[in-house]
Amino acid sequence: MEFSGKTAVVTGGAGGVGKCLCIELVKLGCNVAVIDIDEKRIAATVQELEQMGEGRVIGLRCDLTKEAMVLDVADKVFETFGNVHLLFNNAGVGLGEAQKKLWDLPISDWRWGIDVNVMGIVHGIKAFVPRMLEKDEEGFVINSSSANGGLYSLPNTPIYAATKAAVTSISEVLFQQLQREGGKIRTAILFPGPHTVNTGILASSTVRPDDYVEDETQRKVAYESMDDLIKATGLRIQLTEPEDVARFALDGIRKGDFWMIPDSEQTDMAVGSRTQVILDRGTPGYAF
Hints:
The protein has helices spanning 16-27, 39-49, 67-81, 107-117, 119-135, 147-150, 158-180, 226-233, 242-255, 265-279, and strands at residues 7-11, 31-36, 57-61, 86-89, 139-144, 185-190, 196-197, 239-240, 259-260. The protein is globular, with a radius of gyration of 18 Å. The chain has a 7-stranded parallel sheet with strand order 3-2-1-4-5-6-9, with helices on both faces. Strands 7-8 form a two-stranded parallel ribbon. It has one domain (7-279): 3-Layer(aba) Sandwich (Rossmann fold). Helix 1 crosses helix 9, helix 3 (67-81) runs parallel beside helix 5 and helix 4 (107-117) packs parallel to helix 7 (158-180). With 288 residues, the protein is of the alpha/beta class.
């Protein structure tokens, strides 16, 4: 795919991997719609993007848990640019669930994680894909998953892992259904990595809507960034920078990849181990 002159929609586009995707796309001459829930960050990101590249840029606030808001945003994007060629369902939230028992987690945490990480993608597909098909032009839908959940499930993040497993399943089904429609719109799953990505996803509780808050402790931020986590815990975590993930995703689009999985011996070992456990009808617990 040639990027110049195309239009891209990026959810979670005002920070982290989403912002880096917007930067790379604008540099390539794409028109970009920055979709996010944080108005201040949208404004700052749009201002930055307008100073680079040739593509037009708009910023739109959207709570992806609300279908009506996503449909309204889609209307505005199509009115502005006429079509959408690249849909990055990238937005996601991290929850303060590490080391907590699955049965002790508040239902509001489950609802928020599922409504953003899963239903946000479903709302994006419903709002944009039918109109992309009507335009009958080449396009790509890229859904952001995670190796944790999307390929194997770690026991310390039950909500996050469950949502990313759902993203993988939705993406596989979407790929096959779009193939039946003629294959002009393709699908991919992006697995950011190969290491922990240095974003502010652990601080996403600061924009948590009231509908998902039972008490104010759910809005506390333990770590603003992965760097803060490393400093506080002393853990030796290797980091991948979000701009590297963005470039990897665009390379995957150029190649027409479905499984956008960075090279990683650890991931290959985990996936292989999990697959063998399933074939052996064994019990969960994989080698890393």
